[in-house]
Design goal:
The chain has 325 residues and is of the alpha/beta class. The chain has helices at 23-31, 37-41, 45-52, 56-69, 77-85, 95-100, 121-131, 156-165, 170-175, 185-201, 215-220, 227-248, and strands spanning 89-90, 105-106, 109-115, 144-149, 177-181, 205-211, 251-257, 284-290, 295-301, 310-316, 319-322. The strands form two sheets. The protein has a nine-stranded mixed β-sheet with strand order 5-4-6-7-3-8-9-10-11, sandwiched between helices. A two-stranded antiparallel sheet has the order 1-2. Strand 8 (284-290) and strand 9 (295-301) form a beta hairpin. It binds guanosine-5'-triphosphate and magnesium ion. Residues 121-122, 153, 211 line the site of magnesium ion.
């Protein structure tokens, strides 16, 4: 990992990172509704200047910075093609599942695994935090993983078994996974807020996992009357994760437990509760379903660049594998 001397400069991720924004200006901007880079990127210099009490020239400068940070500009179709070609992939451990994903989990993307309890969401996360460390020619990125665990289901013993199953040095593998338990949704949000500094300091971080992204939010904002607040908070959190993946060229993987509804397999089961969508964020969504024994079925849900279809894999002692015929 050490030989590639990559560096990550501190990039602009939030309003407070814009140049010349002190605490007073920051609180004025937030008060006036300019709390996100997006809101500043689309503001007029006049409005921003009036709202924050800053000179027009400063307003113009931070608008330009916000647009650059979000990469809002005309691009040629060729640039778009090149951006896609720069995406890297992490193998999940099963050729069948990799095939479904177009080669594996993508960087610059948030991938969601959703499904009922025991469908394999956590096992896939554990497997990926080992596989991200593999050499490039073995389907890895020679990188480290950050594991944000909200349910306390992370098991280092499982990491050890999966690493051993792949013939890797178990201590090295475990040493490259940075684990934290998020105790509630505010803590979960704060961890992601602070993640940027960690990623800047350690460019070898190539994977960020949140298992599960939704459980704290569901538990804390239960009931119809809290739905709007929950969606708003969760949306913001997920967009922040997506932004991290795009800016730092890393893979973000989240999980989301949904109740099994056989009639919903081809629809969107996250709409199950009261007909409301739990959240809406771009990215790749994979539905997992239990099958016989240790077999699991995966399906891609609305990912226009991936072919439709299913993949079958098994969860073994050594991790995620293909079904042996
Ligand atoms: P929830 O978090 O409850 O929503 O479920 P999940 O989707 O995260 O399920 P998880 O990934 O924990 O999958 C659980 C399944 O993985 C179990 O039913 C087992 O079949 C399998 N599994 C978990 N640990 C082991 C293990 O140590 N050895 C083997 N062979 N299989 C395991
Ligand atoms: Mg789990």
């Amino acid at each position: 990992m050490g030989e590639k001397s990559e560096t990550r400069e501190k990039k602009i991720k939030s309003v407070s990172d814009l140049s010349g924004i002190g605490p007073t200006t920051l609180s004025k901007l937030i008060e006036q509704g300019y709390s996100s880079l997006e809101s500043i990127a689309i503001a007029t210099p006049q409005d921003l200047s009036a709202a924050a009490g800053i000179p027009i020239t400063v307003a113009q400068k931070i608008i330009k910075e916000a647009r650059e940070a979000l990469d809002i500009r005309f691009k040629t179709a060729l640039e778009l093609k090149q951006e896609r070609q720069n995406i890297k992939k992490i193998t999940v451990g099963s050729q069948s599942l990799d095939g479904l994903l177009g080669g594996g989990i993508e960087t610059r993307t948030m991938t969601e695994f959703f499904g009922e309890y025991g469908s394999g969401k956590t096992q896939i996360c554990l497997q990926l935090s080992v596989n991200v460390q593999l050499p490039n020619d073995k389907g890895g990125l020679e990188g480290k993983a950050v594991y944000i665990d909200t349910e306390g289901t992370f098991r280092w013993e499982r990491i050890e078994a999966i690493a051993r199953g792949s013939g890797l040095d178990t201590d090295t593998v475990m040493n490259n996974i940075m684990y934290i338990r998020a105790v509630n949704s505010d803590h979960q949000i704060a961890i992601v807020d602070e993640l940027q500094d960690m990623i800047v300091k350690d460019p070898s971080i190539k994977l960020v996992i949140v298992d599960s992204a939704t459980s704290h939010f569901r538990a804390e904002y239960a009931g119809r009357e809290n739905l709007a607040v929950r969606q708003q908070k969760l949306n913001r959190h997920l967009h922040q994760l997506i932004r991290l993946s795009e800016i730092y060229d890393l893979a973000v993987v989240i999980t989301n437990q949904v109740m099994a509804r056989p009639d919903m397999f081809y629809g969107d089961p996250t709409q199950a509760v009261g007909g409301h969508t739990l959240y809406h964020a771009p990215g790749v969504r994979i539905q997992l379903k239990k099958s016989r024994g240790n077999k699991r079925i995966a399906r891609v849900v609305d990912a226009p660049h991936l072919p439709e279809g299913e993949a079958v894999f098994v969860i073994t002692e050594e991790g995620i594998r293909d079904v042996e015929e």
